[in-house]
Amino acid sequence: MNRERLGDRLADLPTDGYLIDASQDDANQLYLSGFTGPDPFLTLYADGEVHVLVGGLEYGRARKEAAADTVERHADYDYEYGGREARNDMYARFVREKGVESVSMPPRGPVGTADALRERGIDVAVDTDDRIREVRAVKTDEEVDAVRDAQRANEAAMRAAEELIAEADVAGEDAPVEGGDASADDGEVEPGTLLYEGEPLTSERVTEEIEVTLLRHGCALDQTIVAGGAQAADPHDRGSGPLRANEAIIVDIFPRSKATKYNADMTRTFCVGEPSETLREWYDLTERALDAALDAVEPGATGEDVHAAACEVYEDAGEPTFRTDPETETGFIHSTGHGVGLDVHESPRLASGGEELEPGHVITVEPGLYDPDVGGVRIEDIAVVTEDGYENLTAYPIEFEV
Amino acid sequence: MNRERLGDRLADLPTDGYLIDASQDDANQLYLSGFTGPDPFLTLYADGEVHVLVGGLEYGRARKEAAADTVERHADYDYEYGGREARNDMYARFVREKGVESVSMPPRGPVGTADALRERGIDVAVDTDDRIREVRAVKTDEEVDAVRDAQRANEAAMRAAEELIAEADVAGEDAPVEGGDASADDGEVEPGTLLYEGEPLTSERVTEEIEVTLLRHGCALDQTIVAGGAQAADPHDRGSGPLRANEAIIVDIFPRSKATKYNADMTRTFCVGEPSETLREWYDLTERALDAALDAVEPGATGEDVHAAACEVYEDAGEPTFRTDPETETGFIHSTGHGVGLDVHESPRLASGGEELEPGHVITVEPGLYDPDVGGVRIEDIAVVTEDGYENLTAYPIEFEV
């Protein structure tokens, strides 16, 4: 946590304090409290101090772990499990005893707690700016190193995925399937299907290899994208079923370190066999869009500028973007990137309206092209904004045909 | 989703509709919408119908996946990315166009959305009962089967953990460490430390094996507990560092199926070598508490009854519980169990004030004893309440010394 930045950003709060009611699954909570509580707990920022309130089971761990000035437990308020109203009474007392009569809560804070405090005479305002999210966007060197470590795990996982895909056999029109078992010999495998040890190589199999590799490197992920063919044309399709030759296969990995809770994010697109001329052009264009966007990254540039640099490459080549056609369902149909930290998607946004970049912003740059009739291509690097430009944190080759 | 139960439970809502603003990470959202959207989206229940509103990137997938009567996208409301106020205007229009002027939101729904709708003239009430959570608690046969499948993966992972622990060598006082490398030969390994391939066997190493096994079985988990010695005396300590002989090692695994999103949950406690007499007594007591609690499970019994059955075994043996000493930090210091489904902790609670059990409730029963001077012992099975009792979904032996 960057206390100074936090203090600056919260200095002109219209309320006495800032309140978070969430578990460690909420990045604002994790950032402000420093505590990995599995159940929702309260963190109050007031007068430059951080106060945490947890249940008895968490108390010992919270005292050790939390980056807080005070840690209290429910028993300090004579609360045992006594239902909703008693819990809300305790929450109101906890806030008041810190001299706080009004609190801001982040937009996604729980309405149940907000309304309960209001009923008890405490003013609750929504911090529509989500200021702690803004503070989190600028990383300390230690936080950048945490992302860097997660990115090393990411590269190991990408390597495992690329090897599985590159070493796959391809089921032929006539040729018997090598090493195939009964189902493969049955002729149920379509020509062009990638084969691993005689079985169709599926998105699920590659995903499993990626996630096992991440675990072996101290990271976790449950949402890996391995999508080929028409599936790759939907940027949020995680992919399923057999992968095929001559198609683009998008592999998007965004692991989270189990130790630090910081994320990394990287995408590569692979093709076994002969990609179509269109896919080759798309890949070259996307690599140029990546370079153009990265070239635009420097303090003072906005997320919108970086997005524009990527869009221009595509638009000059006649590909639709949201700038030329807000309703397009093909072409470059998402933003150019996003911040990465305790959340895998956080500030700043590299998109229309995207904010000014500052040193310490960790961002991904991920241009891509999509059309169900062609497939999908996306290349994504992760970088940190520096005083005079950026440092690319990604150490993985950009190669289509494997 | 059990539409009939949902309709019954929401029939007497004090509002026109029920609104959820959350991503798939929220179990109520996943249950009501049936859609695995990675970013927050709206689901509105009104007049027995379910309406979903997603961004353009999710539209195709949502139309295929969602268990909704209508699926709309932002473009249907002429919304492109235009910041907060425009988004909130769209949300208000979406609600109003369904003929809805007042909505209930669950207690943990976002206050930002609630207040924005209020500013736009839509009444928002907090559903303090969390009714969808209540509906979710009673499972269909299909949902029970999903838990059963996750539990099979859980048992495979527990087996992998038990084997690692049971097959470990024990570092001796004088004997050189077999197969030890430099660090082990340096005498840095304390006598009694468990060794795997000559290296100290750590909580982290066992956790890795568990989570890799879960992935190989289609499940994920990032919060496994493998805690030995004094660490096991803190029920929420996930454990770290070398494991030791003659100590109790708690292994608590709660995987989630990647395909169905349903969870399982099981705990075993293992000891390599010679447990102390106290640990042996604790283990026997805890096994008796488990049996007593399970015996109390039937429709019409309350969660409080089941909790009482476990407490009585401990109290009769002179061990403290929250019933005999609300402030105790040793003894049986948590509830007896909880519902399991799309959330790993959900209704019903097996605790003081716990609600009446119904057929279809999937619950864990997990008594345990804790004291930093002794260690921790916990045994946890998962079961489904049936018409005339319960069916234990757990197929794993209960054995302490391995």
List keywords for this structure.
21 strands; homodimer; Peptidase_M24B_aminopep-P_CS (chains A, B); alpha+beta; 3-stranded antiparallel β-sheet; hydrolase activity (chains A, B); Creatine Amidinohydrolase, Chain A, domain 1; 2 domains; Creatine Amidinohydrolase; Peptidase M24 (chains A, B); 6-stranded mixed β-sheet; hydrolase (chains A, B); 402 residues
CATH topology of the largest domain in chain A: Creatine Amidinohydrolase
Number of strand elements of chain A: 21
Mind telling me the CATH superfamily name of the largest domain in chain A? Answer: Creatinase/methionine aminopeptidase superfamily
Rg result of chain A: 24 Å
Q: Between the first and last Cα atoms of chain A, what is the distance in angstroms?
A: 42 Å
Q: What is the strand content of chain A?
A: 15-25%
What global shape of chain A is seen?
elongated
The protein's oligomeric status is homodimer
The tally of structural domains of chain A comes to 2
Structural class of chain A: alpha+beta
**Integer average pLDDT of chain A:** 94
Most strands sheet of chain A: 6 strands, mixed
